[in-house]
Amino acid sequence: MKRNAVTCSRTGLLLLAVLTLTAAAPARAGTWVHGIEGTRGFQLWVPTGYQADTPLPLVVALHGCFQNPSQFAGLSRLNEKADAEKFLVLYPNQATFANPTQCWNFMLVLNQTRDHGEPALVVGMVEQVKRHYAVDARRIYVGGVSSGAVLTGTLLACYSDVFAAGMIGAGAMYKAATTISGTGFAMLFGSIYHPDDRGRDAWECSGRPRHTAPVLVVHGTKDSVVNIVNGRQATRQFLQTSDYGDDSVANDSIRPVATQVTRASVPGGRAYTVDDYVYGGSLVARHIEIQGMDHAWPGGDSRYPFADPSGPDGTSIMWDFFRQHTRN
């Protein structure tokens, strides 16, 4: 790998000694690569067996508050899954100067639109990785937890031409709040906005595309930070977005009614319910509620904060959903 200096004109600061991404030769098995896009850093996991002539899926993984990429990778064991299933993982990093708790600022209007703010920075990272690594552009996904999950919703809404599917873990719907005070209320009680209205907003943010926005929503029933109603609102919001997206009309061609409900449990662990929404032969949405789980990543590594080892494997659930979707 080569090293050079990268100038970030966005802030007028000179950022030196940045590791340059390159696909001129196969990367070493299972390696971290670091980079910068604008005013944010990121980490890229290049899986074992990567070959520069073989395009791989790319998963964008967005950490939550009080986390960084390495901690989210450890919590979720996503790198191990990437090694086994062969996909790249991009971990954007929220800067402490932007938010001292490292939360993504999803509630700011600047960060709820296309081509602006934090969503644009994340997409810029995706484009940077695509320039230097073999990425299957039809299979780019985004998933996150907590504040990263809410940013996931914005990216899926406003860049449905980039992402084939997304996962919202312990998060909320697109534009659940547009102010800091409104965010506090939404986290405690749910958004004051109707999911159907936000579903149209999300469809419009990507430029009214003629395709669905497949979403996986995972939430604990005892989440003490983000009320469970937020997960239900996020599911309905994206079903409404997909209702517009399949034929550009809100005509209930995709309805907020589960086509299949499955109940399961982890041996010695938590029970959970899976609501699937299958329309036109495609799994448009999946909503999972995990009984008794607090604000956590299910099946996470207990050495890291926000882990619930007694839940189902959230990383496997996410990847199993993602690999069913390819963007046309």
Written description of the protein model:
- It is globular, with a radius of gyration of 19 Å.
- The protein is of the alpha/beta class and 328 residues long.
- The longest helix is centred in the last third of the chain and has 19 residues, at 229-247.
- The strands form 3 sheets. A 10-stranded mixed β-sheet has the order 3-4-6-5-7-8-9-12-11-10, sandwiched between helices. Strands 1-2 form a two-stranded antiparallel sheet.
- Residues 1-27 have low confidence and may be disordered.
- It has one domain.
- It is built from 8 helices and 14 strands.
In short:
The chain has helices at residues 69-76, 78-85, 117-132, 147-158, 180-189, 195-205, 229-247, 314-322, and strands at 3-8, 13-19, 31-37, 40-46, 56-62, 88-92, 135-145, 165-169, 215-220, 260-265, 271-279, 282-290, 297-298, 307-308. The chain is an alpha/beta fold and 328 residues long.
Uncertain residue ranges: 1-27
SS class: alpha/beta
Report the major sheet.
Answer: 10 strands, mixed
What's the structural domain tally? 1
List SSEs in N-to-C order. EEEEEHHEHEHEHHEHEEEEEH
